Amino acid sequence: MERGNTKQEILDAALELFSVQGFEATSISQIANAVGIRKASLYSHFESKQAILDALVEQILQQYALHSIFARADWEKYSADLPLTSDAAVQMIQGQLRYLLHDPTIQRARKMLVIEQFQNPELAKLQTKRNYSDVLAYFTGLIKCLIQKGVLSENEPKIMAAQFCLPISVWLGLCDREPDREPEVMALVEKHIQQFFRVYGK
Predict the structure, then answer these.
(1) Which is nearest to 159 in space by CA: 170, 147, 173?
(2) What is the four-CA torsion angle of 61, 64, 69, 70, rounded to 10 degrees?
(3) Which of these ranges, 2-6, 8-12, 35-39, 95-99, has the smallest mean pLDDT?
(4) Biggest alpha carbon distance in the chain?
(5) How many CB atoms are located within 10 Å of the residue 77 CB?
(6) At what angle do helices 49-67 and 3-21 cross, to 10 degrees?
(7) What is the pTM of this model?
(8) Average pLDDT over all residues of the chain
């Protein structure tokens, strides 16, 4: 087996195990068995289980930065993507939710962070950053731009952003626990965004 592929298979197997049973409960032997290699072979790719976790976090953050709209902090740079109507906002947010729910790496990473936030201080910080601070900052920037464009009425952007995005975060968690409720959640997201634009729209 080619070395680069084996390394990625180790990362994929580890993420699957970490997302189900957590980092501490997962052994090197379990990861090696999931890949179909010996522990000694695994150690030729990664020196420890922590090294596997570190590589996973780096890979996940790179993928998140490339594909998640929440990684876009600079709305001036992405002004062409501004959702200027409620329909455009619905399409944008539903598309992002589908990505977060169905991309296997991002889905497993989110579940791993949910488990590890109570055991690993570094991953707890990452959970807060990715699932709260970054999301709120993204939507605060979006709301400010929509106010400047005259789409939304003048108000407190951070509070408006919280009102907009935090229910969506709760619904995302609901879909993680109960995947069959995704159609219901998508309908709620649409109604929520349309109402937000009715309340704050000019």
Answers:
(1) 147
(2) -40
(3) 2-6
(4) 64
(5) 9
(6) 90
(7) 0.83
(8) 90
